Amino acid sequence: MHLAHYLGLLHKAQERLGDAFTEVGKAHGDEPDVFHTCEKLADQCRAHAEKLAPFARRYAEEAPAEPDRLHSELFSGTRTGPIGLLRDLQDLYLMAAECDICWTVVGQAAYGARDEDLLGVVRACEQETAIQLKWLRTRMKQAAPQALVVAS
Amino acid sequence: MVDRIADPWGPRTPYGPGDSWPVRVDTFLADGRTEADVQRWVPSASILHSNGDAMDIAVVDDRIVGVRGRSGDRINHGRVDPKDLYGWQANHSPDRLRRPLVREGDRLVETDWDTAMGRIVARSKELLDGPGGWGHFGFYTSGQLFLEEYYTLGVIGKAGIGTPHMDGNTRLCTATAAAALKASFGTDGQPGSYTDVDHCDAIALWGHNVAETQTVLWMRMLDRRRGPNPPAMLAVDPRATPVAREADVHLALRNGTNQALLNGLLRELIHRGWYDEAYVREHTLGFEKLCRVVEDYPVPKVAEICDLRAADIERAAELLGRSERLLSTVLQGFYQSNQATAASCQVNNLHLIRGMIGRPGAGLYQMNGQPTAQNNRECGADGDLPGLRNWANEEHVAELARLWNVEVDTIPHWAPPTHAMQIFRYAEQGSIKLLWISATNPAVSLPDLARIRRILANPELFVVVQDLFLTETAELADVVLPAATWGEKTGTFTSVDRTVHISDKAVEPPGEARPDLDIFLDYARRMDFRDSDGNPLITWTGPEEVFEAWKECSRGRPCDYTAITYDKLRTGGIQWPCTDEHPDGTERLYTDGVFNTDPDYCESYGHDLATGAELLPEEYRAKRPAGRAFLHATPYQPSPEVPSGDFPLLLTTGRTVYQFHTRTKTGRATQLVHAAPESWVELNPADAEGLGVGEGDLVRIESPRGVVRARARICGVRPGVVFLPFHYGYWDAADGAHPGEGRHDRAANELTITAWDPVSKQPIFKVAAVRVVKEADSGGHPSPAPTVGGSAPPEGSGIPATVGGPAAEAPSRGE
Q1: Which candidate from B134, B616, B758 shows the least CB-CB separation from A37?
Q2: What CATH code is carried by the domain that includes residue A86?
Q3: Which of B40, B41, B308, B426 has the smallest C-beta neighbourhood within 10 Å, fewest atoms?
C-alpha cells in the first residue's frame, strides 16, 4: 500500500506551507492584513500536519520504499515591494494548491482503505485549505492592478 | 429650564409598551433670544451623530441664533441632543476658513478659487495621462456630507476617473454594520425602526454606549424604563457607562472577546430550546453549522475567555431567551474590535434563530456612528457601488454604465474596492499620488498617527483638503478648500432607521466658502469628464437635480427613493424604501421573512468571515438562498495584539457625550468645550493602586507605536483595561503642537494598532497593548474628565460635578 507516501507528501507540504506563510507574513509586515492572516494560516497548516502525523506513522509500517521525485520545491524565499508581494502570494497559492489536490487524493485513498478516522481529518482540513486558496486569490486580485499597472 | 450639560438627557416622559412616545420640545436660543425674535425656522436634522434627530434652525437677520426640535418628527418627537443644542455655534467661529489656501514651500497662503482649483486640475490631468492613471487618485471622504455630495463624488470617481480607491471615514465607524447586514440579509439596510423601542420587552446593547453617542435614542429607552412594564436591559461593555449602570445585566467582558461571548450565548439559547424552529427552517440557512461551531463554547469556557462570571452569562442568556420582543443595538464595542463582522453577524443570528425580526419591538439596529454614513454607503463614495449594487455582479455594473452612459469597464468592478487603510498604504508606497480628503480629519482619527502624519507630509503626495477649519490634516495639505457646512447649504441625509431628512440652507457661508457639492461640480466641469457620446458626464447644477438623478439610480434597489421629493421632505422625515407602491415609506424590512439574498439582487456574494476570502458567484448560487437569511458561524480567535510583559494593559478608545469625532465643531462651542476641555485616561481603582496612581495624576500611556500623556480618572472601567477618548488632537493643544512639529502626546490614536477586520476592513481601535507610568502628582486637581457618562467618578469622590451653568440653560417643553 502506497498511501503512506502521499500522507508523507501532504504532511511535508503542509509543514512547508506553514513555514512559508510565516516567512511571507514577516517579510510583508507593512501590509498588516497579510501579516496577521498569514500568521493565522501558518498555525492552521501546522495543525493540519499534526493531525496527519499519526496516520503517516501508522501507514508507514506497511509501506514499500519511497518512490523517486515525490516532493516538489515551490518556495525559495521572499521578495520585496508590491510586485514581490504578488509573487510571494503566488508561491503560497501554488503550495496551497498542492495541498488541496493532495487532500483530494488522500481522501480517495481513505475511502479505499475504509479509514473513517482519516476521512474525518481530510473533510475538516480540506475545507480550510480551500479557504486559504480563496483568500490568496482575493488578496492577489486586489493587489494586481495597482502593482502591475499603476506603481512605477 | 434645564442645564443640558449637567443633565444631557433632560426630563423624563415615561410611557408604556405600545404607547406613543410623548412629545418634548427642546430649544436653545443664544444671546437671550426668544422664539418671538426668530424670523425664520429652517428645516434640518442633526449632523453631530447618527440618530437623525429633526430640528429647525432659528434665523435672525440672516444669522443662525439657535435650534428647536421638531415635535412632529418620527425620530425625536421634539428632543435635541446637547451636541446639537450648542454645536451650531461653531459655524460662527472666527477661525472658519474663508478663502482657499495653497502650499508655497512650508507655508499655506491664501489665494483665489481659480488658482486653487487650477492646481488640482493641472495635477489631476497630468496624473490621468497614461495607462493606469486612475490608480494615482484616492478619495477619502466623510460621514458628514450630504447624499447629493456623495453621489456626485461617486460618479466623478467611478465614472469620470474610474478609480476603485474611494472610501470615507465611514470605514472607521460603520463599515462593519454594512458588512454584517450584507452577510446575513443579502444587502445593507436596517431591518428595524426606532419605534421598536416603543414595543420591545427587552433591549440588548452590544458594545453600544448609546447614552453618550445617540442621546435621543437613549431618552426613548429611558422613558420606557421609567414607564409601566419596562423592557429588561442587557449591556455588553468593558466600561461602566450610563447604559451599563442602567442595565439589569452588565457583562464587562475582556476587550476583544465578543465572538466567544456570542458563541456561548447562542449555545445556551439553542440548548435551552429558546429558538423558533419553524422560523429557522423556513427563513434561514446554516443552522446545523451554527450549532456545530457554538457547541465548542460551553459557559465555563466562555467565562474564562471573557473573564466573566458564569452566572452572569447565564442570566444574560435568560434575559435574551425569555424575551418576546427583543431589540438589539450594536456599535463600536463590536465594530472597532476583534472579529468585528463575525461578532456582529452573531447578533443577527440571535434575532434570526429567535424569529425576532420584522415585527414591532423585535428590532435590530446595526448602528452608524456618523450622521450621514448611511448615505455614503448608499451612494458609493466609499467602497460600495451606488444603490447597494454588487460589484461582482456584471448586470449590476452594466446598469450603472447605462445610467451614466459610460463603458462598463470604466467603472472599477474588476477588483474589490480599496478600503481606507489600503488607500493610505498605496499613498505611503507612492502609487497613489493625489489624495483628496473631504470633511474628515485622518491626522487624528486613523490608527498609528505618527505613520499617518508621515504619509500626508510626504512632498510626493499631492493632498487636497476640503473642510471648515484648518484641521490637523489641512495643515499638511497642498491645497485647502474652504467648505460651507450644515445650515449654509441644502441637501438630504438618512438616519440609522432609514429616515431621510432634508437640511435646507438657512444662511450664507462665510467669506468665499462654498458648498461641498459646488466644489465637486466645479472639479467635474474643469476636468471636462465626458460620457460615451462625448457629452458632459455630469450636468447637474444644484442639489435637487442631483437628488432627482440619484432617485433613478436607486430605482428597484433596497434603498429606493423614487417617491421622495424635496417638497415632501420639508413636511417631515420619510423611511426608505419609498416608492409609488409605498408612498409614505416603509417602517420595517423583512416583515414577511423574505430577505434580499436572491443572487441577482444581493449586494455581495459573501466572504469567509475568518479571513475575508471572497466566495465566487457560482458558489453563492449553489446555496440556493431563495430569500432565506444566512446564519454565519465562526470560532473565536484572539486579537491581533494581546497584553504582554512589557505592555500589560489593554487600551480601548471611545467617546464622551459632549464631543463629536475630532472636535472640529464641538471643540468650538463654549458649553461643550467647558464640559470636556481636555483629554483624560480612565483607570480601574485596582490597576491605579498597583501603579501608584491617584485621581488627577499625570500619567504616560505607552504602546509600541507612541506615547500619550493625560490626567487619570479613577472609575469603573474593567480591571486590566485603560480608556482614552479619541476626540483630542492638536489644533487647540496647550503647547500649540502642530503636525510635523512639537509634541504629539495627546491623541489616543498615537497608540492604536494598524490592523483591521478581514471582512469589513474596519480598523481595530479597541485592543492595543499598553503600559501606564505615573509622571506627576495631581497637586489636588481632579482629572478634566466629565463627571457625567462613562468617566463618572465613584459616588462620594468629592469631585466637582460637570455643569453648564446659565449659558447652557435650555427649555424642554412637554405637550
Answers
A1: B758
A2: 1.20.1260.10
A3: B40
Contacts of B542-545 spanning 24+ positions with Cβ under 8 A = B542/B490, B542/B517, B543/B146, B543/B148, B543/B489, B543/B490, B543/B491, B543/B492, B543/B515, B543/B517, B544/B490
Look up the CATH superfamily of B2-94: ADC-like domains (2.20.25.90)
Other C-beta atoms closer than 10 Å to the C-beta of B774 total 15
User: Which one-letter amino acid corresponds to residue B101?
Assistant: L
DSSP annotation of B801 reads P
Distance CA B399, CA B408 (A): 9
Cβ contacts of B581 within 8 Å, gap of 6 or more = none
Mean pLDDT by 10 residues, chain B (815 residues): 97 98 98 96 97 98 98 97 98 98 96 98 96 96 97 98 96 96 97 98 98 98 98 98 98 97 98 98 98 98 98 98 98 97 98 98 94 94 93 97 97 91 98 98 97 97 98 97 98 97 98 98 98 98 98 98 98 97 97 98 96 95 97 96 95 97 97 97 98 97 96 96 97 64 88 96 96 96 97 95 97 88
Which class is domain B175-367+597-628? alpha beta
Q: Please indicate if any CB of chain A lies within 8 Å of the CB of B689.
A: no
The C-alpha cell of B34 is what? 426668544
Tell me if chain A has a CB within 8 Å of the CB of B422. Answer: yes
Q: Which of A36, A82, A141 sits opposite B755 (nearest CB)?
A: A36
- How is chain B split among helix, strand and coil, in percent rounded to 5? 30, 20, 50
Contact (CB<8Å) A145/B131: no
ipTM of this predicted complex? Answer: 0.95
Instruction: Please tell me which of the candidates A30, A138, A145 has its beta carbon nearest to residue B613.
Output: A138
